[in-house]
């Protein structure tokens, strides 16, 4: 307990799945959290459930001005911003021949451009507060290795991997007290997994059986597995870690 005392975090995609789990654990570890999500009903419910140390902000990560407003809201509500978790994301199970222009544009807008916007606006604010700050970006195992069936997702997540490193170098070169890292989940049991199974005409049990085979550890991950990775990277325990790609993937990318 208390690993994130005095931290103030924006967590995107925090109305469900990994983002919601991360928000709940951040609160338990002493942080104040802005639940940033387009799903107003679910986001408000999560924030209300978490109490006075949580607040909801309706955020479209692909809208730059919305990011500016979110950071301003965070500062007004909790006094500062020390932590950004760029967790929001979408996925289409489509290969290069199947991917439509609309699906490509939406995937890039949310998974890649939204991360850029969030980092740029957050860094501008974080550099003024004089405190140790951190950013953790959700990439994926498919930001490290490719899979034909997720063409646009691979493209966007691969970009996030190197955008993270470039931002970490910038913060270091500017002598800013801001660390920037990426997290690379394997297949995790979340609402996105259910959506992916549905896209492929599978039951969730069939989906699990397919992807468990790809993880040498022999099972799929849970949202908590990723959330605790975010906790570590956001804590002062990770004071010397920046520009790192943290794989939380049951040895998927070790193959």
Describe this structure in words.
Its EC number is 1.1.1.47. It holds the Pfam family adh_short_C2. Keywords: Oxidoreductase. One of its GO terms (molecular function) is glucose 1-dehydrogenase [NAD(P)+] activity. The chain is an alpha/beta fold and about 260 residues long. It has two domains: about 10-185 and about 225-250, Rossmann fold, CATH 3.40.50; about 190-220, no CATH class. It contains eight helices and seven strands, in the order βαβαβαβαβαβαααβ. The protein has a seven-stranded parallel β-sheet with strand order 3-2-1-4-5-6-7, sandwiched between helices. It is globular and about 50 Å long. The relative contact order is 0.15. The mean pLDDT is about 95.
Keywords:
single chain; 255 residues; 7-stranded parallel β-sheet; alpha/beta; Rossmann fold; 8 helices
Topology (SSEs and partners):
Blueprint (H helix, E strand, L loop, with lengths): L7 E5 L4 H12 L3 E6 L2 H11 L3 E5 L5 H15 L4 E4 L14 H26 L6 E6 L12 H23 L4 E8 L5 H9 L4 H9 L10 H12 L10 E4 L7
Parallel strand pairs: 1-2, 1-4, 2-3, 4-5, 5-6, 6-7
| Strand order in space, largest sheet | 3-2-1-4-5-6-7
CATH superfamily of the largest domain: NAD(P)-binding Rossmann-like Domain
- What structural class do helix, strand and pairing data support? alpha/beta
Helical fraction: 40-55%
Number of helices: 8
CATH topology-level name of the largest domain: Rossmann fold
- Give average pLDDT, whole number: 96
Name of the CATH architecture of the largest domain: 3-Layer(aba) Sandwich
Compute the gyration radius: what is it? 17 Å
Broad shape: globular
- Tally of separate domains: 2
Which CATH class of the largest domain?
Alpha Beta
For the biggest sheet, the summary is: 7 strands, parallel
Report the span from N to C terminus. 35 Å
């Amino acid at each position: 307990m208390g690993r994130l005392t005095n931290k103030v975090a924006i967590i995107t995609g925090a109305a469900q799945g990994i983002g919601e789990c991360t928000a709940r654990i951040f609160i338990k570890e002493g942080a104040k959290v802005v639940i940033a999500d387009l799903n107003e009903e679910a986001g408000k419910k999560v924030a209300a459930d978490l109490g006075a140390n949580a607040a909801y902000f309706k955020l479209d990560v692909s809208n730059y001005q919305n990011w500016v407003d979110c950071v301003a809201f965070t500062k007004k509500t909790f006094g500062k911003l020390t932590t950004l978790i760029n967790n929001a994301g979408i996925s289409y199970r489509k290969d290069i021949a199947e991917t439509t222009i609309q699906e490509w544009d939406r995937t890039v807008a949310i998974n890649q451009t939204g991360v850029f916007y969030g980092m740029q606006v957050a860094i501008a604010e974080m550099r003024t507060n004089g405190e140790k700050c951190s950013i953790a970006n959700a990439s994926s195992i498919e930001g490290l290795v490719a899979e034909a069936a997720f063409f646009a997702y691979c493209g966007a997540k691969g970009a996030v991997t190197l955008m993270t490193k470039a931002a970490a170098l910038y913060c270091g070169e500017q002598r800013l007290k801001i660390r920037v890292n990426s997290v690379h989940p394997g297949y995790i049991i979340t609402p996105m997994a259910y959506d992916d199974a549905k896209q492929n005409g599978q039951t969730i049990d069939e989906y699990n059986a397919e992807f468990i085979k790809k993880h040498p550890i022999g099972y799929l991950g849970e949202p908590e597995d990723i959330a605790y990775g975010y906790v570590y990277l956001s804590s002062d325990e990770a004071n010397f870690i920046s520009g790192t790609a943290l794989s939380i993937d049951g040895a998927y990318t070790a193959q």
